[in-house]
Design a protein that fits this description.
By secondary structure, the protein is mainly alpha-helical. It contains 5 helices and 4 strands. The strands form 2 sheets. It has a two-stranded parallel ribbon with strand order 1-2. Strands 3-4 form a two-stranded antiparallel sheet. The longest helix is centred in the last third of the chain and has 19 residues, at 132-150. It is extended and about 65 Å long. The chain starts with 9 loop residues before the first strand and ends in a 6-residue tail after the last helix. It comes from Equus asinus.
Length: 156
């Protein structure tokens, strides 16, 4: 039985910086319109991929229905309004000690980020013990502290 359909926001003109700062961290569905996909829509032909991929075996799925990633057993629900290209990108570019040893494909957050998120969850649970006005004050103070200590000045 299918669950209720939720509306997915559609945005046009989103820059790479906006996407990385505002939308990617939310990890929520989003339709980005008018994005320049570069050469992949014209260059990634069967001939090109066979040249650069050599004799490596790859599985390609072309569909406009729910798909399943057989490597990780994750379902991807796709509704294609026009031709699209789906690519799984594995982000394992940090030193290996930054990742969970069981995370073969780099699908999980780096271990330090996972630990930080767990600590944040515990802090938020603790703040929930305060009355709303105090909880709001201290939560905002924590956000400012995180921005001051953790945000990179390179992305401002």
């Amino acid at each position: 039985m299918a669950g209720p359909r939720l509306p997915v926001p559609r945005l046009a003109g989103v820059s790479q910086e906006q996407f990385m700062q505002q939308f990617y961290p939310q990890r929520k569905p989003l339709v980005l319109e008018g994005i320049d996909l570069g050469e992949c829509t014209s260059k990634w032909t069967v001939d090109y991929l066979s040249q650069v991929g050599g004799r490596k075996e790859v599985k390609i799925h072309v569909a406009a229905v729910a798909q399943m990633d057989f490597i990780t057993l994750w379902f991807h629900n796709v509704i294609s309004e026009e031709f699209g290209v789906g690519v799984n990108v594995f982000w394992r570019h940090l030193p290996s000690e930054c990742y969970d040893k069981t995370d073969t494909y780099g699908n999980k957050d780096p271990t330090a980020a996972s630990r930080a998120a767990q600590i944040l969850d515990r802090a938020l649970k603790t703040l929930a013990e305060l009355p709303e006005e105090y909880r709001d004050f201290y939560a905002r103070r924590m956000v400012l502290h995180i921005q001051d200590k953790a945000y990179s000045k390179n992305f401002e």
